[in-house]
Amino acid sequence: MVLVGLMGAGKSSVGRLLAHALNEPFLDTDALIEHDTGSAVSEIFSSRGEAAFRALELEALRKELAVSTPSVIATGGGVVSTPEGRALLVAHTPVVFLDVSAAVAASRVGDARSRPLIAEDPLGRLHELSAERRAHYLEVATHVIEVDQRTPSQVVGALLALLGVAA
Ligand code: S3P
To answer: Which protein residue's CA is at the shortest distance from atom 15 of ligand 1?
Structure first.
């Protein structure tokens, strides 16, 4: 299962809990990129630029989707910004869109300095990114969960119910 959504949607926290509930491994594209390159995401953005990061992200997602055991994969919020990323996701199910408002996402991102695309103005940038990406998240998703009013464990409960899975 793949989780998509804006920064601050809770993909990593929900993903970890969900993986635990399903007894599946938890994979995270940002973490794999950092592991494989030995650099933080923010360093990759500043030294090599966003396009280079997107290429690494695509490769990380390809690798994780190729793992034959079922797993829970948390993606970076921008994975849907390239046609290649969307094509990979559309070919895979289930893909769950954790739908968060920009305001709640901004309140949850914590230290925005480690998030290069929103560092200057988290709330304003999250509004813009949401406007740019929402249709893309909906395009690749097989399931949508509203997360504004839910804690990560409530999101997991709602998701398992939606998928018809007993944890
Ligand atoms: C990004 C989201 C980040 C990370 C990078 C770019 C984006 O991941 O991949 O900073 O473009 O939305 P999270 O969504 O896990 O924070």
So the answer is: 76
